[in-house]
Amino acid sequence: MRGWWQELAGLVTPVDCAGCGLPRSVLCGECGAELWGRPARRVRPDPVPAGLPPVYAAARYEGGVRSALIAHKERGGLALADPLGAALAGAVGAAGRSGAGWDVRGRRGPILLVPVPSARSAVAGRGQDAGRRLALAAARALRGSGTSARVAAVLRLRRPVLDQSGVDARRRVANVAGAMEAVRGAERLWRSGGPVVLVDDLMTTGASLAEAARAVTAGDGRVVAAAVIAAAPRTFGNHRN
């Protein structure tokens, strides 16, 4: 119910820019430029957790981008799903163009966007599954640009995990280690031949993405890349690919 009321309110009530507060603008041009103004690029945490696939991010997690992600995830800014999803689609496209293990022109089946799962308690508390909503928006954006894509929300948490915020890299890895699994029947999707790209809103240490990759691989899937809307500034480094 909470999510339904939030979506209705977003349709009938003027809103301010989620990034900077500019009146009557869901996301102003300046904050939008922080998301789309530069090509998505490869990011790497330090240290790199074992099993982390190549990760591509649309933007740095700072300024208006940070504010917009928090507004969508924690404050029910549902109108932000499409612009954020478009940024996520850009990161997916960058992964494909990089030669990360798949080729849009020669693949079999659609790209499978697999969102990193959130805890049930978090989804219930927010009234929405923010990660799945962003994955769906990204898939729409990819299809709109001529790239076949679908969302495969096939990962789930098999045990409770702690909130990752405020936890150092080593403890984050331990917190999520072995916590995810693919649901029964996921192997049918892997057999369709489409490349599996993990998607999430944010990467800091890469622990959750590495665990998601492990879970897909354990279920006989093959992850070729991961894409996020934003990553911690320190993960950008000086590398180009």
Automatic annotation (TrEMBL):
<dbReference type="InterPro" id="IPR029057">
    <property type="entry name" value="PRTase-like"/>
</dbReference>
<dbReference type="InterPro" id="IPR000836">
    <property type="entry name" value="PRTase_dom"/>
</dbReference>
<protein>
    <submittedName>
        <fullName>ComF family protein</fullName>
    </submittedName>
</protein>
<dbReference type="InterPro" id="IPR051910">
    <property type="entry name" value="ComF/GntX_DNA_util-trans"/>
</dbReference>
<comment type="similarity">
    <text>Belongs to the ComF/GntX family.</text>
</comment>
